[in-house]
Amino acid sequence: MRSDGPNALSVGQIVGNLILKFFTGVGNVEKWSVWNWVPCGFALGLCAFSVLPMPEGPWTQFVWAAVCLVLPLAATFWRAIWGRERAIWLRALVSWGSVALAVIGLAQMLYLRAHGEVDVTGSTRIKPRSSVGDGAALLITVDSGTVRRHLRLTLGVAEGSVGTQSCAPDTTFDVALAGQHPEDENRSLTSGTTADIALGGQSTDVRVVVTVHTLAGCLMDISVDKAVLHD
């Protein structure tokens, strides 16, 4: 498509010039020119959009996503302030690389939204909440709409009658999904030990049974120290 006239520009040429200005900036312009800041604004928009689907969970899983989002901002800011006198290929490389990294950061955040670890400690309920003795079975319910395939569960054990007994060192427990037998690695666990439970496919209805083993006459308090859903 081309307009009439000897001096007319084709649509393709106009679009090409716009793209060239976006990724390289214009030649002899002041550093506050809008074209120097468009890549920075674009990277900032991608970073802001990437934060929206950010799930709850251990901060360590967001390290690489954060690097891919912070670096483009720093690079495009450098390009707008100090890079205007640099070679066109360097400005283009910074712009293209910044956009690519921001897109990767967004993709990582979307992946973590669907498959990342989610801390559900505050969404767990344990029954009964009273002190229990040897052979008691407690039911832990995870009240969360998050769908994952595994539950990492860390339980704490404390004396039910402080000052009258010392049974915590000899207390163990078995952990399994309700209606199933405990896996070997989830048997005879002690306070602070983490059990990893396969949920048998994606499910939001998570119910775990904890069977307590302690000395005769001892009463123990069982609590959920940490609960994390993951794939």
In short:
Helices cover 34% and strands 29% of the residues.
Q: How would you characterize this protein structure?
A:
- The structure is a single chain.
- With 231 residues, the protein is α+β, with helices and mostly antiparallel strands.
- 34% of the residues lie in helices and 29% in strands.
- It contains four helices and six strands; from the N terminus they run H-H-H-H-E-E-E-E-E-E.
- The chain has helices at 11-24, 34-51, 63-81, 88-115; strands spanning 118-119, 124-127, 137-159, 172-177, 194-213, 220-230.
- Strands 1, 2, 3, 4, 5 and 6 form a six-stranded antiparallel beta sheet that branches.
- The longest helix has 28 residues, at 88-115.
Question: How big is the Rg?
Answer: 29 Å
- Extended strand count: 6
Spell out the helices and strands N to C. Answer: HHHHEEEEEE
Q: Give the overall average pLDDT.
A: 79
Work out the helicity level: 25-40%
Question: SS-based structural class?
Answer: alpha+beta
Q: How many helices in DSSP terms?
A: 4
**Beta-strand content:** 25-35%
Global shape: elongated
Largest pleated sheet: 6 strands, antiparallel
- Taking the alpha carbons of the first and last residues, their distance comes to 52 Å
